[in-house]
Sequence to fold (77 residues):
Amino acid sequence: MSDKETLIGDEMIKAQLIKKSNKLGISLDELIERYIRRGLYGDDYYTQPQLSKKEIDEIFKRNMERDKKNSIPSKRE
Fold:
C-alpha cells in the first residue's frame, strides 16, 4: 500500500494547490489569483481594452527593437 495519506474534499484541493504553488515557487494566494484571472479571461468576463492604431504600432515597434536586441532576425528583411 501507499504511504500517502488519502485526502478528500477541501483538504485534498488545498494540498494540491500548495504542492503546485511550491513547484512554481509562488505563494498560494498568487496561484489562486492566477487561476481566477485565467478563468475570467477564458469565460469572457475580461475584455481586452481596445487599442488605437498608434498604440498598436508602438507595441510592434517595441517588440521589433527587443527582437533585434536579442538577435532575432526580422521577417521583413
Observations:
- The chain has one domain: 10-69.
- Residues 5 and 16 are 13 Å apart (CA to CA).
- Residues 10-69 form one domain.
